[in-house]
Amino acid sequence: MYKEFQDTTVLFGANAPFVEELYEHYLADPDSVPEEWRHYFDALRQGPGPEQEVPHAPIRAAFEQMAKMGPVRFVKAGTDDGQRQVGVLQLINAHRFLGHRVADIDPLKMHEKPRVEELEPATYGLTEADLNREFNVGSFRGLEKQTATLREILEALRQTYCRTVGVEYMYLTDTAQKRWLQARFEPVHGKARLTVDQQKRILERLTAAETLERYLHTRYVGQKRFSLEGGESAIVALDEAIRVAGRHGAQEVVIGMAHRGRLNVLVNVLGKPPAMLFAEFEGKKAEELTAGDVKYHMGFSSDVLTPGGPVHLSLMFNPSHLEIVNPVVLGSAYARQQRRDPAEAKDQVVPIIIHGDAAVAGQGVNQEVLNFAQTRGYGVGGAVHIVINNQIGFTTSDPRDLRSSTYCTDIFKMAEAPIFHVNGDDPEAVAFVMQLAMEFRKEFKKDVVVDIVCFRKLGHNEQDEPAVTQPLMYRRVRQHPGTRKLYADHLVQSGVIAPDDPERYIQEYREHLDRGELLYNPVVANVVRKHAIDWTPFIRQEYTDECDTSIPAAEYRRLAERLTTIPEGFELHPRVQKIIEDRRAMGRGEMPADWGFGENLAYASLVAQGFGVRLSGEDVGRGTFFHRHAVLHDQKRERRDEGTYVPLQNIQEGQAPFYVYDSTLSEEGTLGFDYGYAITEPNQLTIWEAQFGDFANGAQVVIDQFIASGEAKWGRLCGLTLLLPHGYEGQGPEHSSARIERYLQLSAERNWQVCVPTNAAQIFHLLRRQMLRRVRKPLVVFTPKSLLRLKEAASPMEDFLRGGYRTVIGEVEELAPKKVKRVLLCQGKIYYELLAYRREKGIDDTAIIRLEQLYPFPAEALNAALKPFAQAKELVWVQEEPRNQGVWYWLLSRQHLKNELGRGRRLLLVSRPASSSPAVGYLAKHVAQQKAVIEGAFGPILAD
């Protein structure tokens, strides 16, 4: 078999990894490969032998060239010894690639190990007679000598790659990363070397994890808590991760997880007092929140002591939507990192994300997060991922239906993250790979994964009976003594602890729980954190719409000059050059300011006043509709740092930062990230812009479960701003409506602001208001498309120099109030179409009022705008959205115009007919519908 392989195999395709690995052996020790191969590699390198690390690219290129010339046979070794030596190196390589397939990582022993032929010596022509022959071990570090018998090599390989840790890493393209892992994993045969104190700590962690779960199970019978039983080693992993992080200089660890095991993590890792937890179980905690949340969704923060000093831990709150918390964790970590020296930031703030096995494979947000993990505006230097793999998924899953990949962690390979699969019944191995994972992340600033293969002792929740659907699995679960018991017995047999110590540990922990105390209290009080943010100025602030956001004329001109100053020799595109020239005229007051100028002026004024700005989303630098141009591109140079210029980063010395990032093609992941950023950084205006407003559909879970309700459920303040382009302009169902009705349906308890500005000065004042007030509420802005260049939507210089955001804009033309019979109420761009029609037809008995803020509803401002037209008996709401969408039904249900209707007025509607689609796709039909709405607003109205 080997001879056929040697004679016929070409040097490309599936054999490329072997050839590259053979080259690795050559680099480590030229004498470890057969003489013919050594000469061949020497020739490719044009040198007598490797004196230092060299790129693999020339080797790959040479093989690619051979492949183009047709089938190329392997260079034959001249002797049988040479052939056997190559076989040994292939065997080593195979264990590095595939050893995990036969590793002992399942504590329930549910699945028969596959036979992997590549791990058998016979596959490479090696026989029993070769077991006592000596071979060069190449780059394998599992033996303390360069040559060893095949028996010794095989035993070392199996101990290293096939025991309770299965590691996947050979797909990494960076040789240095692979060698780093080999240097730390192979010499110890993938096994921890722990001190007695470390072993005792592991047992203490397991005891705490198991005892808390059993205590809650008996004290609060039948209550949901999503028990960690069967996966207690996760507490060992998290404890070790935090200690290693602290030892390596981390100051903060941001943790995200779903609900399984959360109560255990809160108490046994973050040090939440058990008495506080019990109060939540018993409903005794006096809540100040308007809604609150279940106990297994709550967050918590504390400072714990590690070998490197205190580390601040933040466990993020999260809904039951499982993995959706992951981008929130990363956004929060990123914001914390930006407060620090860039050279140390990623070491000082470490994100740790805990997954379930079904969720990590099944939830698409993980792909989005991994895709932007190394990008400029979202990279946190890698997250450490821990998978609590209970091998069952969630409720009644059949393993055959859980996923299509071999492992639940296969998605991480897209980010070239090494993956450690570890048997949860070997807590020492769990601690060992956790240490490796933390050190790898520190060294290479990349994601890394620890997959703890364990089981779930109880059902999906404590009221389920899992044996109904998994009878054989749960027969084994019932027979399993528990990880703590197995490890305690091991330490007793090893003489590490006395026979009665395990029970004593349990009893001591229970006694402390009875008193509502922690036995192993890691919490450190009164830690002064240099980079902490004080949210006190924003807490319990009375909401107000009022805020003077004007700027002086001199400042207007100065900012405009800075926004339009371009470096010498920087060549703009002709269209952009015209925009900059127009903005110079706007800055001098020679022409009205358009939307793009008003928006950029808002950012410039904020950074000049000390408020940072972060703007992210698809195409935000230029702007999807070619209006923003916050990032300018030199037409003589490609898009690199030297080929771009950001005026907003050059407003003045000592200004606050302005960040602008074109995101990956992602909504859910990037919006979740920006939400996490905004709840961590109140002193920056954080903006996420959808390419089209209806693209926010892809992030609806973030909007529903975090942005709209985060303050009511968790008391978390957030000033995140959403820019959602909206407007019916014939672009079809997916490029028209940002679904205003959805945001209004979620509006209550003054949870956020929903605004529809219609001119340049309005967006200027609105963005400034978001930061200048001491209020931190999310802001949802329905921004225009056609108005970006509409002359009527431009604003004179004077509008920037006085007042603030106008929640309602009343009639702007001179109408005789007594002649007005009808008042049109509207929002958005349709106002300008109504105004144009009225002017064209010379209509003077119909007033038009714009609602620029829909929520909180500006009742007083609207009443003031309506007051001059008290005799008008018809109030008509005009919207371009279909009847069953937009503002209409919300306006009726909230009775916002109740007072006005009580004066004998009728409230009527003009809109598109009700529709299951937000807009038509045929341009001709759109034009006809839009025409009917505009004409209908001024014609006879038959019904409301």
Automatic annotation (TrEMBL):
It comes from Tepidiphilus thermophilus. Its EC number is 1.2.4.2. Its cofactor is thiamine diphosphate. Signal peptide: none annotated. The keyword Disulfide bond does not apply. Residues 593-790 form the Transketolase-like pyrimidine-binding domain. One of its GO terms (molecular function) is thiamine pyrophosphate binding. Homodimer. Part of the 2-oxoglutarate dehydrogenase (OGDH) complex composed of E1 (2-oxoglutarate dehydrogenase), E2 (dihydrolipoamide succinyltransferase) and E3 (dihydrolipoamide dehydrogenase); the complex contains multiple copies of the three enzymatic components (E1, E2 and E3). Belongs to the alpha-ketoglutarate dehydrogenase family. Pfam families: 2-oxogl_dehyd_N (PF16078), E1_dh (PF00676), OxoGdeHyase_C (PF16870), Transket_pyr (PF02779). It comes from the Bacteria. Transmembrane segments: none annotated. It catalyses: N(6)-[(R)-lipoyl]-L-lysyl-[protein] + 2-oxoglutarate + H(+) = N(6)-[(R)-S(8)-succinyldihydrolipoyl]-L-lysyl-[protein] + CO2. E1 component of the 2-oxoglutarate dehydrogenase (OGDH) complex which catalyzes the decarboxylation of 2-oxoglutarate, the first step in the conversion of 2-oxoglutarate to succinyl-CoA and CO(2). SMART domains: Transket_pyr (SM00861). The keyword ATP-binding does not apply. This is 2-oxoglutarate dehydrogenase E1 component. GO terms for biological process: glycolytic process; tricarboxylic acid cycle. GO terms for cellular component: cytosol; oxoglutarate dehydrogenase complex. Keywords: Glycolysis, Oxidoreductase, Thiamine pyrophosphate.
